[in-house]
Amino acid sequence: MTTLEYNRTEKSFAAWGLALEGAILTRNNCRPDTYTVTHPHASAADPDLFPYEARVIIRRGGTIAFVGYCISATLSAAPEGVLTTYTFANAWWLLERTPFQQRTASKTVESFSFPYQSQVILFARLDQNDYFEKIDSGTQIAEALNHCRDACLALGWSAPYQLGTIDPALDLPTWTTQEISCAAVIQKALELSPDCTVDWDYTTSPPTVSVRARANRTAVTLALAPGQLTEAKLERLMKRYAGEPYLDVVATPEGRPGPMVLTTLDFPEAERADVLRSLATYAKDPACAKRLAALYRKLPKRLRVLEGVPGTP
Questions:
Q1: In the predicted model, what is the mean pLDDT of residues 144-154?
Q2: Rounded to an integer, what distance in angstroms lies between the CA atom of residue 22 and that of residue 233?
Q3: For the chain, what are the domain ranges?
Q4: N or C: where does the chain have the smaller number of CB atoms within 10 Å of the terminal CB?
Q5: For the segment 119-133, what is each residue's pLDDT rounded down to a tens digit?
Q6: CATH code for the part of the protein at 2-90
């Protein structure tokens, strides 16, 4: 069962009045993970279930699958009634909204002070003895994460995350800037580490954020679910195989007098090879191969252009 907890109250989606069908979790790198869910209700005058910035915890089978904050509630009307679409974003959204600041040395006639300010020098900091020191890219990422977390705690919020493993450790030149968000600091530190991604583990409390290099990850094998292939998807693949665009894209490029239809397909041999490779991978599982054959038989005759599909003439 999928449940949602808000303000210390945990209920099923049905008990909240939320539609589980169509709920979407989107995972991103260096952007907020989002969870989108709709709330069908009778009147546009009904109050929102979740206010702006409301923190929610979504569980599947008792395991935390997502922790986020309400960033929008969009009202729409449909023949069957009124829908409110809620979008929740994870703590990366907080990193985007929190300015990064550093302690800096300030001297008056009487004494030194070390205020925080938004004009910063990345890949450097004042150490515990208030001396200037260089830091690597991983330490800079940790500085940004800690600054945002501490800012949330200062507002009386619970800790939005805890730090996990941070792999990158490049010695980068200092970079002076101002009015930069904590998220932008992390993105800057990762510019020369394209093999690293920001990962969120929601099963811990609070969620654990890590920055892992591809070489340090554990390879896993995931089974394909037969339901991943639908009749519409297979029809689209067959159109690609036959060199037929499934969607006409019309645009007016700069400098042209009028609209034109854009090419959305690769070279024919590349498209055919990609389609065959995808279907061959899917059909390795017997249940998937059986579904492929069943869906293939339903296609219009002009799209049944493959040979050797199991279970088909």
A1: 97
A2: 17
A3: 2-90, 95-216, 226-252+259-303
A4: C
A5: 999 999 998 888 899
A6: 2.30.300.10
